[in-house]
Every structure is written in C-alpha cells, then in structure tokens.
Design goal:
Elements (H helix, E strand, L loop, with lengths): L13 H28 L32 E2 L8 E2 L6 E2 L4 H9 L7 E7 L3 E7 L5 E7 L12 E4 L2 E4 L2 E8 L2 E8 L2 E5 L5 E5 L2
Antiparallel strand pairs: 1-2, 2-3, 4-5, 5-6, 6-7, 8-9, 9-10, 10-11, 11-12
Length: 203
C-alpha cells in the first residue's frame, strides 16, 4: 500500500489533515512568540542593559562670564569735600579736596591735582597735592574730617611748597611774619612766626 492510498474514502483524509494544520499553527505561534520575546529583551531600557550605541545627552553649559559686584570702596561726599575711601584706611581721602582744586586753578594750575601725602592729627588735616607739571600745593584744615573747608577760617591754602628729606615744607608769609609747616607721614610741625614750634603726631 502506498502513502497515498487512493482506495481510502476522500473524507477520511480531512481529519488527520486538520489536526496537522492546527499543530503547525500552534508550533509556529510558539516559535514566533519566543522570537519576539528575545528581540524585545535586547532593546535598551527594558532590562537587557544599555545599548552601546546610546550617547549621553549633553547639556549646554552657561558661558564663563565673570560677575562684577559693586565696588563698596567709594562713597559720595558733600560738594566741596574730598572724596573719601576706605582704600587708605577708614575715612582717609585718596584725592585732593575740590576746594584745593579750585584755588589751584586760580593760581594758574590746570587743576588736575593728585594727592601726594595726607596727614591727619588730633587737631587738623593736611593734604599735599601736585599737578601734572609737578607744582606742589599745601592744604591745611583745622578741625575734624568732613567739615566744610572755609579759607581763612578753618582752612589754609599755600603755594610755597617744596619737597624736603622725608616730607614737605610749606611756608606762609604774612605781615606778622613767616610760619613754616613741616609735613611728614608721621607728624606735622608748625614753626610759628614769633618763635616756638608745635608738633602734632599723626593718628
């Protein structure tokens, strides 16, 4: 008898054939499910580990721009008063008084003065200023820092000023005689016209 026995009734083939088709369908579905599951496990982010082709996301950084804070050193002062700053110590000016600049201009100076020496004692202040041509000026103030300078009352402006060893000498010629002011970084010595000297140490 051959595999294809033509003597069997035609309907007898349908049952085994249907069973075979169903089995093949089940096997094919199972194989497809397994393949699909394995493929899914290889995808990144689903528990199979990171994909080596994945690159980290780069975040743009802010530009390295310096931040400038306001400079607290300088503080405004009333008109006519020296600009005061903490750069040379509390309450120590770093420029010549506007009062001095005005008087220097009246003598023919350009008025662009720079502070050469500042001295403060218990009783007075002294500024030694110079202009671009090297001309020296003396500005004295009898009183406490911050007061308005009034020439002939509490202030003395002199143009007869010269540099001496370690300091400056300012000379004031009047009808009553000559007074000399010797200024160094540590003291003011006033040589009065009538004789005698007064020393004011720096503070």
């Amino acid at each position: 008898m051959s595999v294809f026995d033509t003597d069997r009734p035609r309907g007898a083939w349908l049952g085994p054939l249907a069973v075979a088709v169903v089995l093949l369908a089940v096997i094919g579905g199972a194989v497809g499910f397994l393949l699909a599951t394995n493929d899914g496990d290889d995808r990144p982010g689903l528990g199979a580990g990171p994909d080596p082709t994945v690159r980290p996301t780069l975040v743009a950084e802010a530009p390295d721009t310096p931040t400038y804070a306001p400079d607290p050193t300088y503080a405004p002062t009333p008109t006519g008063q020296p600009v005061r700053t903490t750069a040379a110590g509390p309450g120590r000016p770093t420029t010549c008084p506007a009062h001095t600049v005005t008087l220097a201009r009246e003598t023919g100076s350009a008025g662009d003065l720079s502070l050469t020496l500042y001295l403060r004692t218990r009783h007075s202040e002294v500024w030694i200023c110079t202009d671009p041509h090297g001309t020296l000026f003396y500005q004295g103030h009898s009183g406490q820092p911050g007061e308005k300078l009034v020439e002939g009352v509490n202030a003395l402006f002199l143009t007869d000023v010269s540099a001496t060893g370690g300091g400056y000498l300012a000379t004031n010629h009047t009808d009553r005689g000559t007074t000399r002011y010797r200024v160094t970084a540590d003291k003011l010595v006033i040589e009065h016209e009538g004789g005698g000297a007064e020393t004011q140490p720096a503070i």
